[in-house]
Amino acid sequence: MAKSRRLLVLIKPKDLEDPMAGNAPLGTPAQFAEAVAVFNTAPDGSTSTRLGTAVLHGPGYTVEYASGQDIINQAMVSVYESESAWPVLSRLCKELGWKMQDTESGQVFG
User: Fold this and answer.
1) N or C terminus of the chain with fewer C-beta within 10 Å?
2) Res 27 pLDDT > 80
3) Domains of the chain, residue spans
4) With helix as H, strand as E and coil as C, how does the chain read?
5) What is the pLDDT of residue 49?
6) Which of 40, 81, 38 minimizes the C-alpha distance to 61?
7) Model-level pTM?
8) What are 39-56's pLDDT values in tens digits?
């Protein structure tokens, strides 16, 4: 049986108390990569990108974002191994003030 993959979107709410206030940028690609590097999330060292996206690898998950943008507004997270991914993603969101939104249900958490 194939493992299921869960898709989430990393966002940074402008106002944690008001979800309708919109989202703030996650930073430039360099700022974003530096912020997630603390959580063992980094490129795999290859020079290729997937059709205009940069891919960072973390424990049990990957993070993809548009590589041609000056500012990153959101990033897609694919969770492959939830036991190792959730503690890291939860800590990442807590420490950086980011949230995760489930692409299927629309639920925001983190």
Assistant:
1) N
2) yes
3) 16-103
4) CCCCCEEEEEEEECCCCCHHHCEECCECHHHHHHHHHCCCCECCCCCCCECCEEEEEECCEEEEEECCCCCECCEEEEECCHHHHHHHHHHHHHHHCCEEEECCCCCEEC
5) 58
6) 81
7) 0.86
8) 999 998 766 556 788 999
